[in-house]
Amino acid sequence: MGLRDRLLGWPVYRQLTGTDPLGRGAAACSSRSAELTARTQDADRVARSVCPYCAVGCGQRVFVTDERVTQIEGDPDSPISRGRLCPKGAASRSLVTSPLRQTRVRYRRPYGTEWEDLDLDTALDMIADRVLAARADTWEDVDAEGRPLNRTLGIASLGGATLDNEENYLIKKLFTAMGALQIENQARI
């Protein structure tokens, strides 16, 4: 291949001498780039979600192929993020698909050195028993002067950023009904 042929094949030369005045036409494409397809083209379905990392609540589009998450991108229809994601949000696919992700309930007994697997019903029963015990052990009916308190300082709640208003409302009602005072949400911190 001679110098003239190499110059004529050079993409910059083709862009400058082509018919597209902005140089974005066919001259800018290589044969490899012409064959590329979007990672999301073969997805079976797209689910909408919210990024799990911070309190902003950026919208995400989750692309699923054969019931496996194949890509997570920003949702351009989200009024909050308008399709943009921070680096953590953009990398959230690895949160779901990592082989290191725990998918079972793991429990280490007090003073234990080994983790054991528990079924979900057993774990939920253990949590309920501990919440009830903490409430009973720290319940305050009245203060030193006899004024009613009906509270516990032994239970607190810190809600996550991905909870919507309805879920936060129900959590607030639950913890208030249990007598807890320390109820906060990450979105306010």
UniProtKB/TrEMBL annotation:
Signal peptide: none annotated. Gene3D superfamilies: 3.40.50.740, ADC-like domains. It is found in: Cell envelope. Belongs to the prokaryotic molybdopterin-containing oxidoreductase family. GO terms for biological process: anaerobic respiration. Keywords: 4Fe-4S, Iron, Iron-sulfur, Metal-binding, Oxidoreductase. Its cofactor is [4Fe-4S] cluster. Residues 44-100 form the 4Fe-4S Mo/W bis-MGD-type domain. GO terms for cellular component: cell envelope. It holds the Pfam family Molybdop_Fe4S4. It comes from the Bacteria. GO terms for molecular function: 4 iron, 4 sulfur cluster binding; electron transfer activity; molybdenum ion binding; oxidoreductase activity. It comes from Verrucosispora sioxanthis. This is Dehydrogenase.
